[in-house]
Task: structure prediction
Amino acid sequence: MTADPANPEHPERAAVAALADDFLTRLREWIAIPSIGADPAHHGDVAGSAHWLADALRADGWPEVAVWDEGPALPAVHACWPSADPAAPTVLVYAHHDVQPVDPLEQWEHPPFEGVVVGEELFGRGASDDKGQVAMHLLAVQAHLRATGATAPAVTLKLFVEGEEESGSPHLGELLDRHADDLACDLVVFTDTPMYSRDAPTVNTGQRGVLGAEVFFTGGTSDVHSGRAGGGVPNPATAIARLVAALHDADGRVLLPGFYADVVEPTPLERADYAALPFDEAEWLSANAGGARAGTGEAGWSTLERVWVRPTAEVNGIQGGYTGPGLKTIVPASASVKLSFRLVPDQQPAKVMAALREFVAANTPEGVEAEVVVRGDGVPAYAADVTHPATLAVHEAMSASFDQPVRYSRTGGSGPAGVLHDRLGVPVVYFGATLPDDRIHAPNERVVLPVLLRGAEAAARLWRLLPERLS
Ligand SMILES: [Zn+2]
Result:
């Protein structure tokens, strides 16, 4: 290895520092392309963003670069840089280059597509989610080569940057199948999640899955007079309320049959790490939980555990009968509830859906007809194995780069890591260096540059460490 004499312990850090100015110029240029996937008027920009990335990769020396724009998926970018060692492992980095819409525009303090730098922060849509993290990987590969003095990476690197993540990755499975050879790998590095905080850097190890459904209860064919028929016929709104009330027991556990049968609990090490993270519940409630007045949930688990590693059933909306001004004395003909479930490994969305149907059937009173409408196939949960050598290597690379104790964390939201794992048949580890308060999907999205640069340093280390750690 070519060690920088000024920084012999941290060749990757020195390399990142030398490349940091170019990195920032480049990221600002990319942020200026408004690749908003949700808006058809911006689909040309999504394509422009893909081609910008492809050009940047070619300029960096990536020997194989392609834009996949054959449809129906919005353009994705694929690149490969083979290691000089044919026995080296192949690592696929997954990320995305599409961004969320910017409304309400008037709440932005800086134009969302200019990449304005204020102190340590770079503002702009995509600065954190996820262009900043993709650019971090480009920088990391440059730094890896500079630090090692090699002309090819120590692992065979593949990059897969999709253009539809913010739209729920509707064609991801199709892309993975169609390009199975291009994407074949030994390990996926999933880069679309944050660390816990700047003061408490973490390796994320999991995301929950999600499943949505709607339940409709119908009594008669029309609303009826509550005096003439009330008391003599079933009330679908009451029935929906009873169904919702039956979803949880007094300890906050979900009562769908078999709901917990496949749940894998976090390891004692993970629980100890969660407990050791700085967590101020009052601050969390006001900053992250919409000003909720108390943290509540399933008995026996901390707030972080409840939102990271425990499955849930939530009522998203409920309706039925008369909701206009004043009173209307009726027995409504119908009522409905929208439900979503956050899932954890190894719960399968299809199995949970079957359990919901069983639960609804058991809680439908006589004289009421039930219909369960499923919203899509759901997204499976995924958790990286904290004993896997790749996870340990990520932890080691992060620890060396952040100069602080690095712990494990998870996120409560959902993403396609489980789909990548299932289709590619390889382990997935998470690698991210953004922060939960980057205001992604919201006005004034930003990324903290020194944190992102440490992330690049960590990724550069990871590529150096992996061949040995995986051997
Ligand atoms: Zn993202």
In short: The pocket of zinc ion is lined by residues 96, 129-130, 165, 192 (CB under 6 Å). The chain has a mean pLDDT of 96. Residues 11-31 form the longest helix (21 residues).
